[in-house]
Specification:
heterodimer; A: about 475 residues; alpha/beta; seven-stranded mixed beta sheet; flat; B: about 500 residues; 14 helices; 17 strands
């Protein structure tokens, strides 16, 4: 009950924190007006207001400390620094407001009051900003001030109404295609910078092509270099735009393709229908497009958020099949992660995992519940985990699995039964120190004669040995 | 990564830090550092799912890591692997000119008036493999007993005839110093698979025979960013110098110091955009994590007695080849991509039989144990194990030849190496040499081919793994190298 109450108090932090801000602003305004001799500020009112500032600040700090105990604020790794800075600055702010109240008590300390008031006003800004950073995200405030390092030119039609544009600015190219090029290409392939001797800012330049030949083949999208490069997988070095730059979405690429297919007219032409509102092609996609929308042009890819999350916990996650975007995930350097968190990290990536090493990890029921979802899984290491025979049985439907490593896993003979009947694609299993009895081994070998069972490679004896060399005996002393 | 892309990333970072610095006051540099520590995460939110610093694999790899045992000084193929029974009857005869074909000599034997054939005094036995068996000498019985797992290449050849250029060529693909080491290329190409240990680790064992110097540049990163250089773990005392915090310095103190230094470094990086500063910040953080990960790595108390015994009696002696083989397995388990072991002392110009006995005894049991241990733990399948010297040794004796003693000079025209695991064809011998183990008759394999094949197994096209330096794209294989399908499983 008390816990719940404390929790609710903590969650009132976002509301409470505005009180000291308002009170302090009011007090500062009154002080300024008093300083300008526009009003008279009575000492009693000043003291009351200062007290209210302190009390509300104390309430904010207290509720903030309660809020900090919530799992959402303790589990993360990335922002703990922002959080602790916010916390300590907030506590400092509270102390300064207390000091300014106390300074009003005697005539001698009253001299410090203006300074303390200014200090508390100054401290309020970083505290508030850090709090907002956690709520709204990094750079929320400054984002509009600093558009990208090399902000591409905005297309002409982004502001203008098509109806009032001059005749030369009407048609597919000026209204739909030029803005795409301006948005994604012209910063490197333009008047001032012609990478690959290619410029795309005027029709003449586009037709002139670049170092590797023509940029577009009107009417033939499949042989148009620009389009071909846009459609290459992101991992290809020839992919354009470079993978670090904003990428056009599928609708934009389709539009571009239809324009080339239509003979790439630079003047006139009916506006091509787009999937979204026309302005959609001008805005960078807020996030990388979701994988299934890429259609036939690229394989689905694992979510980058999930990859960021798993790597933040020092789990190794690497694309080892760039064609199909499949992953190798290894908990080798992150053995301390608890079972439930392992499952949460793996869950969004499950269909993309080709090779999974849980060796030495704390994989348990939650993680094992994820494994049957891994339809691409070819290799699984459970070495040195407390895996049970029941766990093995629960994943025996994994038909894609080819290699299973159970070295140093304390199993009983029921596991051999699952190995004999399940795992239809399995070609190799490692059972060194798995605790299986000789009988279980024999039964498994009989049930699946083609399954390679690796235990330990015992040294082999020589087949034959050459006779001792004669030279040594015949030799003179 | 292309330098222009790299530059964009730096600009992005700069803006990122700029907004941070404005959001609080400039004095609150800790926040900038907090952002820096998150910098990788923020970059990874870009559309690319791969870490930004490494190009990543080009296709699905067969192997994920390499354990490279380099035998410094060049072991004698004639006494270990390349069985030439016919030489017994040619004891002390002159090497025919038709065999030597004017091959250049080193300064050590160029003054010799004759080149007497010195057959090996060691007995060979035939072991079963996946072909019709292989003859191996009595010097390495443990290794020979794993012949079904190993791929022997009898037809390696190199261009260098002296140790420095020879090792440099094997490690960097070029005889002259200055290029990145193989391990550095792998680190650059694939990135780290371990958050707490370096990507490229070097372990050195002292030998018993004639030893040549080992330069740190053999595991240097050349013109690649500094974080790709090999990290040597020392064989005695602390494995990494200054690993322990000095007396009176607590871990939080160290953290605060690093935070401040990184904040200053970050400011300089924003100003100069020098990628080496980024490497330095990364190295500081790695060193901080190694303060806990290295003692854990070195702590063998969790190893069971049977495993320790398998590596032989020297396993508990730090710096021994046995101890380093065990560490190699532990490093592989912890996600280190490239583990390079150096065993010194194979340069047997004189007294070869005595020296090679000691050298072989030191490496035989541990290296066989390593292969066996990797295999039973399910690690051999995705780990390439290579065992190679920088060249071979001559069939003719250097210095006096007797029935019980001889020496051998450097021989680049043919020598034997072996490999195992990671997509290598097991239990085969590749290539053939003539009756004198002097010239290659079949299937010559050069160093560039070996590099190209190993990169192929790691999922990289050796022609696409490049780095632009001083206006030119450099490759490990320069303009050479072919993937050799006969080596692949």
């Amino acid at each position: 009950m008390l816990d719940t109450l404390l929790q609710v108090t903590g969650r009132a932090h976002p509301m409470l924190l505005h009180l000291p801000i308002g009170m302090l602003a009011a007090l500062v305004c009154l002080e300024i007006l008093a300083l300008a001799r526009l009003i008279e500020l009575q000492t009693r009112i000043r003291a009351v207001l200062a007290c209210l500032v302190f009390l509300s600040a104390a309430a904010s700090v207290a509720s903030g400390l309660l809020l900090e105990r919530e799992p959402a604020y303790t589990g993360g790794t990335g922002w703990t620094d922002t959080l602790s800075l916010h916390k300590w600055l907030g506590i400092g702010f509270g102390i300064i407001t207390l000091l300014s109240v106390m300074s009003l008590a005697t005539a001698r300390t009253r001299k410090a009051y203006p300074l303390l008031l200014m200090l508390s006003a100054a401290a309020m800004f970083p505290v508030g900003h850090l709090g907002a950073t956690m709520t709204h995200g990094e750079g929320f405030l400054t984002e509009p001030l600093f558009p990208g390092p090399l902000a591409p030119l905005r297309g002409s039609s982004s502001s203008g109404d098509p109806a009032v544009l001059p005749a030369s600015s009407r048609g597919i190219y000026p209204e739909q295609i030029a803005p795409i090029l301006a948005r994604y290409c012209v910063s490197c392939h333009g008047d001032s910078k012609m990478q690959g001797k290619l410029a795309l800012h005027t029709p003449e330049a586009i037709l002139a092509g670049g170092a590797t030949g023509s940029a577009i083949e009107p009417g033939d999208p499949d042989n148009s270099e620009i389009l071909v490069r846009m459609l290459l997988p992101l991992t290809s070095r020839d992919h354009m735009p470079p993978k670090v730059r904003p990428q056009p979405d599928q609708a934009t690429i389709d539009l571009f393709k239809r324009w080339i297919a239509a003979g790439a007219p630079f003047e006139g032409g009916e506006l091509l229908p787009t999937g979204d509102a026309p302005s959609a092609t001008l805005e960078p996609p807020a996030e990388p497009p979701p994988p299934p929308d890429l259609g036939s042009s690229a394989s689905p890819a694992p979510s980058s958020d999930a990859l960021v999350a798993i790597r933040a916990r020092h789990v190794h996650a690497e694309i080892i099949d760039p064609e199909k975007n499949l992953l190798w995930i290894s908990f080798d350097g992150a053995a301390a992660i608890p079972d439930a968190e392992m499952a949460a990290l793996l869950s969004p990536l499950a269909p993309f995992i080709l090779d999974l090493s849980l060796a030495g990890s704390r994989a348990g029921p939650s993680t094992f519940a994820q494994l049957p979802m891994m339809h691409s899984l070819r290799r699984l290491s459970l070495a040195r985990t407390p895996t049970t025979s029941r766990d093995i049985s629960s994943i025996s439907t994994l038909s894609s699995l080819q290699e299973l490593i159970l070295s140093s896993v304390p199993l009983d003979d029921a596991a051999a039964q699952s190995l004999a009947t399940g795992f239809t694609g399995l070609s190799r299993v490692f059972l060194w120190r798995s605790g299986l009895s000789d009988g279980a081994f024999t039964a498994l070998r009989e049930a699946r004669p083609s399954l390679m069972i690796s235990c330990d490679t015992l040294p082999a004896d020589a087949l034959e040995t050459e006779p001792p060399p004669k030279v040594a005996t015949d030799s003179p002393p | 990564m292309h330098p222009v892309e790299e530059h964009y990333l730096d600009l992005t970072r700069r803006r990122f830090f700029g907004t941070c610095a404005q959001s609080v006051s400039g004095a609150m540099g800790t926040l900038a550092l907090a952002s820096l520590l998150r910098a990788d995460a923020s970059l990874a939110t870009a559309p690319s799912p791969q870490p930004s610093s490494s190009p990543g694999v080009h296709f699905r790899p067969r192997a994920k890591r390499v354990i490279y045992m380099h035998m410094e000084g060049a072991p004698s193929q004639i006494d270990l692997f390349d069985y030439k029974p016919g030489l017994r009857s040619r004891f002390n005869q002159d090497l025919p000119d038709s065999i030597r074909q004017g091959q250049r000599l080193t300064g050590m034997t160029s003054g010799q008036t004759r080149f007497p054939v010195a057959p090996s005094i060691f007995r060979f036995s035939k072991y079963a493999n996946n072909q019709d068996g292989i003859w191996l000498s009595e010097l390495m019985p443990h290794t020979a007993a794993l012949s079904r797992e190993l791929c022997f290449i009898h037809s390696m050849h190199t261009e260098a005839i002296n140790h420095e250029p020879g090792i440099t060529f094997f490690q960097t693909g070029h005889q002259q110093p200055g290029r990145p080491s193989f391990g550095s290329w792998v680190s650059y190409g694939l990135g780290s698979a371990s958050a707490n240990l370096p990507t490229f680790v070097v372990l050195i064992s002292q030998g018993f025979g004639n030893m040549q110097a080992l330069s740190a540049r053999f595991w240097g990163c050349g013109f690649l960013p500094s974080e790709h250089q090999g990290c040597k773990l020392r064989g005695s005392g602390d494995p990494v110098l200054f690993l322990r915090d000095p007396a009176g310095v607590e871990r939080p103190d160290r953290r605060r110091m690093l935070d401040l230094v990184s904040a200053l470094n970050t400011r300089e990086m924003e100003r100069s955009l020098d990628p080496e500063i980024r490497a330095r910040i990364a190295q500081h953080e790695m060193a901080y994590r190694m303060q806990t990960s290295v003692p854990e790595l070195m702590d063998l108390s969790g190893e069971d007695p049977e495993t320790l015994a398998m590596y032989g009696p020297e396993v508990s002696k730090p710096g021994s080849f046995a101890s380093n083989c065990l560490l190699a397995r532990r490093l592989a388990e912890r996600g280190v991509r490239f583990i390079q072991l150096y065993m010194r002392g194979w340069d047997a110009h004189n007294n070869l039989p005595g020296e090679i006995r000691l050298q072989s005894a030191a490496v035989d049991q541990p290296q066989a144990a390593l292969v066996r241990d990797l295999k039973r733990r399910g690690l051999l399948d995705d780990t390439i194990v290579i065992w190679a010297g920088e060249f071979g040794r001559t069939v003719y004796s250097q210095g006096e030849l007797s029935e019980t003693n001889y020496g051998r000079d450097h021989h680049p025209r043919c020598f034997t190496i072996w490999m195992a695991g990671g997509g290598i064809k097991p239990g085969v011998s590749i290539g053939k040499t003539d009756d004198y183990s002097y010239n290659i008759l079949e299937n010559p394999v050069d160093v560039h081919d070996l590099h190209a094949t190993l990169l192929h197994l790691l999922g990289m096209n050796h022609e696409r793994l490049d780095f632009r330096h001083e206006g030119r794209d450099f490759r490990l294989t320069d303009v050479f190298g072919k993937v050799r399908p006969e080596l692949l499983a």
